[in-house]
Specification:
five-stranded parallel beta sheet; elongated; 23% helix; alpha/beta; binds NADP nicotinamide-adenine-dinucleotide phosphate
Length: 303
């Protein structure tokens, strides 16, 4: 029996494990894919207090190392649901069941797709959702980044270091992401902003060969010849497996306020998977701490 079962091994989940272990609780983190979560795809994190600059993968590996050194157990299995049994919460995975006194859902979010024709077919053949993972394949070539948030800006900056040309395609004429990066990109000779434009078509028989974009102001279509398309148009939650135990909002985020308390006793939600205004690395870490301490209090109140 675990004191705290954590679903998701991103920043929120691993921070919760650190706080849980330090409070003397037996903690397990169950992760369906790779530990680290979204931040592993960030080439450079420059807004985490106390760390001027670090790669996302180094940051997350340090977190995992810290949690494991404190005794947190880790399991790589896909969680399929949760049910209550005699006052115990049981986390079900494809392989096993993990009885826990409390549960923290830290399931994060996943990449939103554009929904363009041939996007799925060309994924892995020029279409990518992770510049850090796939950028090196496009050294010396021309690529497009789609999106106007922090991820798109960071991806464009990262790719500009070794791609010949980076088109940053955004549907509006101002960016949502940090102004400091916009200024750095504007100063780069091999970066071109393509604003008020949306993707109409991704071209290519076997690999990406280009894009057909529509200028939203004139309605005209135009072509960009690119070998890679990096899609960074935001994130969506994946909480369907828990919809029968915790309340979700209309967009699929787990309903929970800053106290991380969900509609189900003993189940807490931390990080980007819950309803919140600001989804940042710092707020994910903060949620991990809040949820773990709330879980500790819940366990002692039950005794
Ligand atoms: P985001 O901030 O939600 O931005 C998504 C972008 O994609 C927006 O510019 C949006 O356009 C555009 N978009 C959405 N749907 C689209 C569509 N169908 N077609 C074309 N464009 C579309 O997402 P994000 O950049 O992934 O960032 C998510 C969160 O993580 C944010 O809170 C961000 O600050 C944070 N983050 C932090 C770091 C860090 O280093 N700490 C790094 C990356 C991200 P509109 O602007 O028109 O809505």
């Amino acid at each position: 029996m675990y004191d705290i079962g954590i679903v998701g091994g991103g920043t929120a989940g691993m921070t919760a494990a650190i706080y849980g272990q330090r409070a003397g609780k037996r903690t397990v983190i169950i992760e369906g894919g790779n530990f680290g979560g979204q931040i592993t795809s960030s080439p450079k994190v420059e807004n985490y207090p106390g760390i001027a600059s670090v790669s996302g993968s180094e940051f997350s590996m340090n977190l995992l190392d810290q949690a494991m050194k404190l005794g947190a157990e880790t399991v790589v299995e896909k969680v399929t649901g949760i049910h209550a049994e005699d006052g115990i919460l049981v986390i079900e995975t494809t392989d096993k069941a993990y009885p826990c006194r409390s549960v923290i859902l830290a399931t994060g979010v996943t990449h939103r797709h554009l929904g363009a024709a041939d996007e799925e077919r060309l994924t892995g053949s020029g279409v990518s959702y992770c510049a850090t993972c796939d950028g090196a394949f496009f050294r010396g070539r021309d690529v497009a980044v789609i999106g106007g948030g922090s991820t798109a800006l960071q991806d464009a900056e990262f790719l500009s270091n070794y791609c010949r040309k980076v088109y940053l395609v955004h549907r509006r004429d101002e960016f949502r992401g940090e102004d400091s990066i916009v200024k750095r990109l504007a100063a780069k000779e091999n970066v071109e902003f393509v604003l008020s434009a949306v993707v109409k078509e991704i071209l290519g028989e076997n690999v990406v060969e280009g894009l057909i974009l529509t200028n939203k102001k004139t309605g005209e279509d135009f072509r960009l010849d690119v070998a890679g398309v990096f899609i960074a148009v935001g994130q969506i939650p994946r909480n369907e497996s828990f919809a029968d135990v915790v309340k979700l909002d209309e967009n699929g985020f787990i309903l929970a306020a800053e106290d991380c308390v969900t509609s189900a006793p003993g189940i807490f939600a931390a990080g980007d998977c819950r309803t919140k205004e600001v989804r940042q690395l710092t707020t994910a870490a903060a949620d991990g701490a809040v949820a773990a301490l709330a879980a500790c209090k819940y366990i002692s109140d039950q005794r």
